[in-house]
Design brief:
- With about 70 residues, the protein is of the alpha+beta class.
- The protein has one domain (about 1-55).
- About 30% of the residues lie in helices and about 35% in strands.
- It contains 2 helices and 3 strands, in the order βαββα.
- It is elongated and about 70 Å long.
Length: about 70
């Protein structure tokens, strides 16, 4: 299991930061925490999730060059 904590001074920035991690297989864990420097959110990712995300990503297209 991998753990990640995102910290931001306000909720809008926190949402933008967390939104960037969701497509990479991260999942939200728990609630948003408020502290003296702003807000924080914990994210979790398992090795299975990493493999699933890599399998869903499109494979690079092979370029074919035709010889006339």
């Amino acid at each position: 299991m991998e753990y990640n904590i995102i910290v931001a001074p306000n909720l809008e920035l926190l949402a933008k930061e967390v939104g960037g991690f969701i497509p990479m297989g991260w999942k939200l864990k728990g609630a948003i925490l408020e502290h003296t420097d702003g807000f924080a959110q914990q994210l979790v990712r398992s090795p299975r999730d990493i493999i699933k995300v890599q399998a869903k990503s499109p494979a690079p297209k092979k370029r074919l060059r035709w010889i006339e």
